[in-house]
Amino acid sequence: MRDVVTGFYVGVLSRLIADGTISVSDSVLVVCGGPLDEKVMNQVGFRDFKITNVDSGMANHRENAENLTYDSGSFDVVIVHAGLHHCHSPHRALLEMYRVARKCAVAFEARDSLMMRTAVRLGFTMDYEVSAISADGKSGGVADSGIPNFIYRWTERDVRDTIVSYDPAHVPQIKFFYDLRIPLQRFARAGNRAMRMVGLLIEPLSRIFAAVAPKQCNEFAFAIAKTGTLHPWMMSETRMHGRLDLREDLLGDVQ
């Protein structure tokens, strides 16, 4: 049986390496990271990576994903795994990742869907991550506080609109990935033995479900590659002495 915690994480990064979107020789920044991310980076084969978190106990480097201290394009790849929904503004954190990435920003988060909304109503999952709060009630929530974070769930259009609003000059290249993860650990922590047994029985079928109805899955990843391709109405930076602008022949059409 595949690792239900890291299987999707490792699988998506491996596919991005295989198709040339990213490389094991790239410099990598992980935001909202911790020991699990370090394990995956080593497993995938990255040699130059930095793990950051607002909680200095989780990583050696302290960074707020919503306000990174690095210059634009400081790392080839920026990655987050199940961390954006712990931010006050998941969209701002994603845009900070995009800004700091030279080649690609990769995020692993939950996807909004009819099945997910139904699961919330039936009590199989939650909108607020109460279970993430530490035993002393001081951390684990939004911005690592004691307040349970809302679980923001993304859609493909949400991702695209966020990026093109921030960077309207360039054509984005976004790849989407899907998987179904049965929350076995959550069932175990809740003492729901029956649900855990059901989960163990159906978990091997999850990949079939992901192939048949990918957009109803609860695991979602997206890789936003910076191709440098301008929209046809834009003028190149070289011609404009380092400044992007609308093509001169189109200026009369918008006056």
The CATH superfamily turns out to be Vaccinia Virus protein VP39
Helix content: 25-40%
Order of helices and strands: HEHEEEHEHHEHHHEEE
Would you identify the regions where 5 or more consecutive residues have pLDDT less than 50? none
Largest sheet: 7 strands, mixed
- Content of β-strand: 15-25%
Indicate the radius of gyration in whole angstroms. 20 Å
Tell me, briefly, the overall form.
globular
N- to C-terminal separation? 62 Å
Mean pLDDT: 86
Class from helix and strand fractions: alpha/beta
What's the CATH topology label?
Answer: Rossmann fold
Topology:
Layout: H1 7-18, E1 27-31, H2 35-44, E2 48-53, E3 61-62, E4 75-81, H3 90-100, E5 101-110, H4 114-122, H5 156-166, E6 173-179, H6 184-189, H7 193-202, H8 206-212, E7 219-225, E8 234-235, E9 245-246
Parallel strand pairs: 1-2, 1-4, 2-3, 4-5
Antiparallel strand pairs: 5-7, 6-7, 8-9
Helix pairs in contact: 1-2
In short:
The protein is of the alpha/beta class. The chain has helices at 7-18, 35-44, 90-100, 114-122, 156-166, 184-189, 193-202, 206-212, and strands at 27-31, 48-53, 61-62, 75-81, 101-110, 173-179, 219-225, 234-235, 245-246.
